Structure formats: C-alpha cells, structure tokens
Amino acid sequence: xxxxxxxxxxxxxxxxxxxxxxxxxxxxxxxxxxxxxxxxxxxxxxxxxxxxxxxxxxxxxxxxxxxxxxxxxxxxxxxxxxxxxxxxxxxxxxxxxxxxxxxxxxxxxxxxxxxxxxxxxxxxxxxxxxxxxxxxxxxxxxxxxxxxxxxxxxxxxxxxxxxxxxxxxxxxxxxxxxxxxxxxxxxxxx
Length: 190
Description:
Number of strands: 4
Number of helices: 7
Protein name: Protein kinase domain-containing protein
Low-confidence stretches: none
GO molecular function: ATP binding; protein kinase activity
Number of domains: 1
InterPro entries: Kinase-like_dom_sf, Prot_kinase_dom, Ser/Thr_kinase_AS
Organism: Haptolina brevifila
Order of helices and strands: HEEEEHHHHHH
Shape: globular
CATH superfamily: Transferase(Phosphotransferase) domain 1
Radius of gyration: 16 Å
CATH topology: Transferase(Phosphotransferase), domain 1
C-alpha cells in the first residue's frame, strides 16, 4: 500500500495499527490502509514541516522538527506496526512524551523475552531495517520488499493479546495528541 501511495507522490503520515483494516474475515483477508485525514501530496524532493501522526508511531525526523521527506517517515511507522504485529506491543511506549520522543530519536528499543523468543531472526531484521533512525539508510517500500526475505516459510501460530496492549497505547496516544495540540497553540520560544 505504501509503495502504491509513494509512487503517486502521496504520503500517509499516520500509518498505525488502528488504520489497518481487514477486507473480510479469514486468514487470507487483504489488509487495507485507512484514514487519510493527514495524508498529503508530496512532490519528490520536497520537505514537509508539519508534525503530525500518532506519537508512538512517529518517525525521529518528524519529532526533530527540521523538515522531513514524508515517504520514509511512513516506512518508520510501518516498522512500528510490524513490531506490534510480531509481539503484540509497541517498541516505544512511555507515558512521558519527552521520554517517548527521546527513545524514538535514538531508536532505543529491544526484542524482550519471552515475547520475541519464537520470532525469527529474519523478522527481527525486517523490523530493524524499518526502524532505522538514519533516514538515508532506511529503505523505501520497494527496497524493503526486495531486500526482505523473512516472509518465506510458515509463521508459528502464536496468539497475541494485541487488543489489550493496543487499548493501553490508544489512551496514551490520546494524551500525546493533546500534548502536540498544546505545543501548536503555545507561542514559539524566541
């Protein structure tokens, strides 16, 4: 979906687990990307400056506030989604927004046991590729799909309690959105 959008010079800017929908029930259901409320047309080479998205999924370059190339920020967010899909909880989850953003800016996360014990090394490498802080080293959707070989083979049937974990992060995300809104309303320091 991201490759399709980026080919058409559209950046989503709010890729997150809540915005992924199944087309129908069943193991082979196609996944649809939804909620284009903050999506924007993005001519190649142009930098964006609007900080938007959900705090737990936002890329380091968006947090930095110095302008960013939108497509690769979507790829970071896809890495957060992939992390959640593999273990059931986000890589960056802090109540304190300053600490959350510090973890994101430094790419500080891990693969804790036992949640990651049954996840393949290839799947972990796929997460690492997308959660690369250095934008110049983060793959585009096409690069990711061509370099990522971890999806071959059967995945173990592991039941993850994703709903309760996402409910926790959703309440934190609401608080984070309030912080971002307040930051926008306050005058810029001189």
